[in-house]
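TA notes, week 10

Several of you asked for a full example with nothing omitted. So below is the full record: structure tokens for the whole chain, then the designed sequence directly under it. When grading your own attempts, check the secondary structure regions first.
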């Protein structure tokens, strides 16, 4: 059988491969350039709604007997939650702020310097708070912070892994947050870091219901 020999009919050029490589490099470079532009543009927009110095919330000083009673109430509920027993915990706004004040470092800083709850929205199951959130600047190597000083809305929910709070909205008088800004903040889970701290973790996972009330917050193990 005769061997078939293919004879090129088109003109060959070594530049074709170079053209493809250059086109790929241009597309890749364009993506990087656009990403960098978008990043720095967003950084500029965030700079318009943040300040360089934090605000300071007034310290909460509880009378010894009041703090002792709150700790005992929390301990009793926490033990029931850890053991899977039925229990309910009702907290006022003052008690919520006191808990934030005495809570240990979450691993991301002390929340007493970041949030102060002031009101509720029962229909939306949210707590309204004054916030002062530390945010890094684009030049992260300078290790400088800026602060989001605003009114924040926290959605309270309970799932299979326990209760948590999610920042779902912010309000800054005379300013508008850039598109997607709040969505990026939602990756910051507020209560979840405490699940890594025992015995807090086991107690929090035992909380199966969380409801905002006119007085504050109601937590339950059922």
């Amino acid at each position: 059988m005769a061997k078939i020999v293919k004879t090129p009919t088109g003109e060959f050029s070594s530049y074709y491969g170079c053209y493809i490589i250059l086109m790929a490099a241009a597309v890749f470079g364009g993506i990087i350039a656009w990403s960098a532009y978008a990043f720095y543009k967003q950084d500029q927009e965030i700079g318009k709604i943040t300040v360089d110095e934090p605000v300071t919330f007034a310290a909460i000083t509880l009378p010894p007997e009041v703090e002792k009673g709150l700790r005992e109430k929390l301990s009793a509920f926490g033990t029931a939650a850890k053991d899977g027993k039925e229990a309910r915990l009702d907290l006022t706004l003052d008690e919520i702020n006191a808990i934030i004040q005495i809570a240990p470092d979450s691993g991301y800083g002390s929340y007493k310097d970041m949030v102060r709850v002031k009101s509720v929205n029962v229909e939306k199951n949210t707590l309204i708070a004054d916030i002062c959130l530390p945010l890094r600047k684009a030049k992260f190597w300078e290790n400088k912070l800026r602060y989001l000083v605003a009114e924040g809305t926290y959605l309270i929910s309970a799932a299979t892994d326990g209760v948590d709070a999610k920042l779902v909205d912010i309000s800054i008088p005379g300013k508008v947050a850039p598109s997607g800004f709040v969505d990026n903040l939602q990756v910051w889970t507020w209560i979840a870091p405490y699940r890594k701290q025992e015995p807090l973790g086991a107690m929090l996972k035992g909380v199966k219901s969380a409801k905002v009330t006119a007085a504050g917050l109601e937590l339950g193990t059922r």
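Residues 135 and 146 are 5 Å apart (CA to CA). Use that as a sanity check on your answer.
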